[in-house]
Each structure stands twice: as C-alpha cells, then as structure tokens.
Amino acid sequence: MKLGIILLLAFVATDHVSGETSHRKWLDQLSLAASWEGIAAALKVAVNSPDNNWDSNTGAFKNTAADGSIFPEDENSMALYFDGNIVPYVESYEVKGHLAIRETQRALDLMRLSWGWYLNNPYVTESTIIEGYYEDGSFKYANDGYDNVGSYPSHSHGWSSGPMDALISYVVGLRPTAPGGAQWALEPQFGDLKWAEGFTTPLGKYSARWALNTSSYTLEYDVPANSHGILMLPPQSKQPKVFWNGKPDTQISFKNSTGLTEVSVSGGKHRLSVVRSPAIKTLLVSVFIYALTFQYCRIRFWRDPHSAFFDISNVYDWQYSLTREHEAHHFISHHKTIEQSGESNRPQSKEILKSSDEPLVCAAFVTVKRDLDDYFEGSIGSMLEGLDSRERHALYLKVIFANTNPKKHPSWGQPWLDEVIDSVATYDVPESTFKELERLEAEEDFRAKGVFDYVNALNRCMETSAPFIGIFEDDVLFAEGWFARTLNGLMTLDDTLEFRGRNESDDIASVVPTPPWLYLRLFYTETFLQWSEDDFAYRNMNMIFVLVMGIGLTISMLTRKIFPQSRSTLTYSTITVLCLVTIPAFTGLYFMIGKYSVHPLRDVVSMDSNGCCSQALVFPRQHVPSLTQYLEQEHSGQTDLMIEDFAKKAELRRFALAPPQLQHIGLRSSRKMAEIDVQSTWAFWFEANDAQKLKAEHERILEEEKMVHLLEDFE
C-alpha cells in the first residue's frame, strides 16, 4: 500500500483517536479514552514497522513496502507532524514538520518561497488568496471548464491557511493545552525574525508577543489570570541575565546546549526579558587571543632590535655562528695537519683548493693583528668550508696582511695559508708610502689607513680577470652556501653572467655593458631597518587605524545585512568592541612587531639607504677604477660612508642579498670603536639559521640549471 494512503489512514485514525481521547478525558469518559489510545498505539506500531514503510537505513518512510527507491517529501513531512496532533487534513504539513523539530529557519524560508512572493504581486488580489493562475504557471481568466464565466476562480484551499496557524502556534508559540484555556503553553521560535505577535480568542483573550534584538529578547503574554501555563524557552550557550516584569530573576536556569527550558508560570499579563552579552564575550575572547598572540610575538620576534619584544639579554649569543666556527676551525685544522704531514704535495689537493686562472669572483681579505681575539682563521675557514670543487675554482681568494710588520700577525707565514689561499701578500709600495703607513699605524689614524688598505685590496683584485671583486673584513663568519647564493644574486643583477664563457675575451669590460649598480652587499644589520617616515603605513599611522576600523565596521554591517541569522551574535555592542578595541589592538601589534620582522627581506633587494657596513661588498670590476680614484682623492674617512657618497654622485644603485650571508663577530673592533657601535653591527637574525636547511638549500642551488651552466667551465 502506498505511503500516502497509509499515512492518511494513520492520520485519520490518530487524528480522530487523539481528538476523541482528549475530549473523552475532558468529559471524564476514561474507559473509552483508553480504548482509543490502544487503537492509536497499535496503528502507530504498524506504520513504523520496517516490514511496511519505514526504512531504517535511510531514516525515512518509503513510498511503498515493496519499492524502497522513492522517499516522498510530502508524506515524510506529514509523518513528522502527525504524531499526536489534531489538525485539519491536507494542511501545510511541511511547514509544521519543520517547526515540530524546531527547524525554524527552514519553515520561514518555505513560507516566503511558497506564500510570500504573491502578497505584492500585481496580478493577484494582493492578499493571501491565489487567484487566476493555471497549473502551467500562466495567468488568465478561467473560462474553459467554468462554463465560460469570465471571472477569477479560486485555487485557494484549506492548506493555504497553514502558515497562519503555524506562525501563531509555533513562531509566536502560544497555544491552549487544556479545555477552556485553563492551561496553555508559550514556546517561541525566533529564526531570523526580529519580532512576532499573535493572539487567539476562542476561549477568551489569549495574546503573546516577542521581540528579538541584537543582545536580548523579550517575551510578553496576556492571558486570563486564573489560568496556568508553561514557558518553553530556547537554550542559551551561557546563563543570561533574566528579568521578570522588570525585576532580576535568579530562579530560571537555562539549558546550555540542546533542549528547552520549561518554566511554570501563572496567568495574567507578564513580561520576561532574557539579556545576553556577546559584546563582553567578544571582549574576553579578544583579550585572550591578543594575550596568546602577544606571547607568541615575545617568543618569535625578540631578535628584532626595533621590535617592542626585543630582548637584549640573549640577542648577542652565538647559535648558528657556533656551528660555523666549529666547521671553520675543523677545516683549517684539517689542512694544517695535511701540511704538517707532508701530504700537501698531492696534485689533487692543490687542484681542488685553488682557483682557476679565470675566476668569476676575486675575494680579498684585509687582516690586521688584534689586541685580544683573532677571528682570521674562522673567517677564512667558514668562507671555504662547504664549497664544492666548481665553486672553489670560480673563487680567487687573496689575503693582504695590513700590518707594516706582518710578523706581528699570528697567522703570518703559517704553511696552511699556501694550502688554501690563492695569494698571500703584504705591502708592496714605495718607501715613502711605506713610511707614511708606519706613521698612520703608530698614530692609530685608522680613517686614513683604512681607506688606503681598501684601495690596495681593490687594486690587487684588479690584477685578476675576475668580473666581480669582493672586499671582506677579517672578523666575519660565512653561512653555508654563501657563494652559490651570491652567484645567484649576481645573475639576478647581471643577466649576461650566466652566458659568459671563459674564452670569450680577456678584456671583460669591453664586452659586458657597464652595470647601473655599484655593489651587492652580503652583510647588513637590522639596526638601520626600522619604521620611518619613508614607509607609507608608518607615515600615515592614524589614517591606517581609521581605515582598518572602517573596514571592520563595513564588513560587520554587511554581514548583518546579508546573513540575518548572524545578528544575534554580531550585535551593535559586539561591533563596537571589535572596531574600537580588537582591531586597533591588533593593528598596533603590527607596528610593535617591527618592520623587518613583518616585512623580512628576501633575495636581491634594493638598499640605496640604510645599508651598513663594509664587512662584505661585491663590486662589478667596471666601477672599481673610478671608485678607487674617488677614495684616493678623499684620502681619509669612514670607508663605507665614502663608498655611499661615491654611489650617490655617480648615480649608481646599491643592492643587498637577503638574508645576510655572513655574521660580524668582532665585538672588539680593530679600529678602537666603542663596544656599543660594534654591537650595532650585528646581523640579529643570522643566529636563527638552521644548518641542515642551509646545507640542503646549497645543494639545491648547485643543481639548478642556470647554476650548472654558469659553473660548467669550472668542473
């Protein structure tokens, strides 16, 4: 038998049974009421049996007992609603089915879809009665089948009045539960509505009204004073404040997840107010998230010298530098051992550890004896440790001992120098110049002597054919893979580098265009990378705060409009907290973190300003003659500042390779600088490097096609 017929029989029976039962009980005919209840129970068991129409796998009634492929929507909706209800047959079953299981929004959406559209339709009577529409959707006078009477036939039947009863009984939620209205129930359902009001008068004046706003709702009812009722209130995620007739009430305790809160009340006219505080919750959640974020920032950004979370107590501790120092000294010790054991005569050792005749980069170290710590071996070892044979062949390493008496230097004359360094030199100048250098050294005039030594190093590298010249100080530690990343950076700035062959020409400058940049910086310090007036966000900080608050307000208001169901949580007070507290707090945190931490530099970046210092600069050889001429003319000064002045006058760009490829470890300056100035010359994030990741990155770069092509002549 089809489900519709079964449900019809079940409905007629249960409708009649339930009605008879209720009326018999009200008339004190309890035996007859019990008989009808038994019939109803037996029929309910039969309808719900899997042997008939119930499909337990799907959780719905199938169309027939034999056919399990069809699950009709209307009959299943009636099944939700029929359980013990007395209603007219063929009503708005689906609407009431949704409401019976408290799917309020689905019911309201269905009402709007099925009834709401024709309230203001110009082709109808602007009422809730459908007139003049044919089943094909067309609108015309109904002549055929109506004896050609040119009038509107009514297609409105009892089912169309269902929403009215549903809105009163479920949405407003007021319905009598006993004869004469002596007892009643008030169970509102909100959905996306802001208010609802209705009344029934068969047994007297029974009216109820509720209104929902952003952070609370009120429920009012007016019933006979000698009646009693039950309020069935929706669950609350947190116990709200409750007011009964304007006075605080502490007796009502809400369920916090599912289920209704039932409250017995007396008749008369009363008002219940339930006040929620999403704004306070929003504030507390914002404070909690901000506290977690703040703590994360303390852990993550303590190395940034311009961050509010900067921690100077540990920022100068060696971490990755310890690893590189150990690897560097192991490299030097290994070659000291080779030299002492006499194995240095092996041809293969010399071949691997020395440059080719036509290198890509000439690297010059200027080293002097220091009063206490000596960093020279660590600098050389970390530069060479980890280079593969191709990289080493492409690098010409020159060391210049810049003491007028080089024997003062602890590394002068040591055999391992010839093992790993391509050229070791000291001053080779006229006697008059040498005496001037002795005077500068004795008087500790490091400004003049430093300029001379820098020019001397540039000129020594110009004696090679290398297209790029790097000048390095002797108190640094290089990161693993520094040379491969440097070559990558040079290829970024000079797109002809990858395609240069070593046999093209001896005069490199004659075949390569003069680059519009002066140097590629391999070291810089975050000390000079801070928020400044050059940054749009910092310069217009007030505007940024207003802008993000405005964006937050706009998004919140649009969300309320597009998604009405969000209004119960996205209240005006909540929006106030978000826009005046949460958003400004996190915007401020953005600036507190520090510019370099928020916008870290990567790869080749422009650094026409804020670059410091002269620990590691790589120049294209085309600009070296004019640079040395300028330095010789100026004669004395801070070398790095003089180089910057030359670049500005020559209108040449300056670039840096980020992150820094080496660390400045000389906390005691060879130029007698104050300790605070030396500490500021520190790559703060260098110590956070991961040795294994850098090694893997180094190997990956060497396998890239353009790098393989560049180094193929250095196999």
Task: Give a quick summary of the entry.
With 715 residues, this protein is of the alpha+beta class. It is built from 25 helices and 20 strands.
Task: Write up this protein.
The chain is an alpha+beta fold and 715 residues long. Helices cover 42% and strands 16% of the residues. Mean pLDDT is 81; it is low at 4-21, 84-90, 127-131, 346-351 and 501-506. It contains 25 helices and 20 strands. The longest helix is centred in the first third of the chain and has 24 residues, at 3-26. It folds into four domains: 5-163, no CATH class; 178-276, Sandwich (Maltose phosphorylase, domain 3); 319-528 and 601-714, Spore Coat Polysaccharide Biosynthesis Protein SpsA, Chain A; 539-587. Helix 14 runs antiparallel to helix 21, helix 18 (541-562) packs antiparallel against helix 19 (572-593) and helix 21 (624-634) crosses helix 22 (639-650). It is elongated, with a radius of gyration of 44 Å. The strands form four sheets. Strands 3, 4, 5, 6, 7, 8, 9 and 10 form an eight-stranded mixed sheet that branches. Strands 13-12-11-14-18-16-19-17 form an eight-stranded mixed sheet.
Secondary structure layout:
Layout: H1 3-26, H2 30-47, E1 54-55, E2 60-61, H3 73-81, H4 93-100, H5 104-114, H6 162-172, E3 174-176, E4 183-186, E5 195-200, E6 206-212, E7 216-233, E8 241-244, E9 247-248, E10 261-275, H7 278-300, H8 320-341, H9 347-353, E11 361-367, H10 376-384, H11 389-394, E12 395-401, H12 415-420, E13 423-425, H13 431-442, H14 446-462, E14 468-473, E15 476-478, H15 482-493, H16 508-511, E16 517-521, H17 536-539, H18 541-562, H19 572-593, H20 595-598, E17 603-606, E18 616-620, H21 624-634, H22 639-650, E19 653-658, E20 662-664, H23 675-680, H24 691-703, H25 705-711
Parallel strand pairs: 4-7, 11-12, 11-14, 12-13, 16-19
Antiparallel strand pairs: 1-2, 3-4, 5-6, 6-7, 7-10, 8-9, 8-10, 14-18, 15-20, 16-18, 17-19
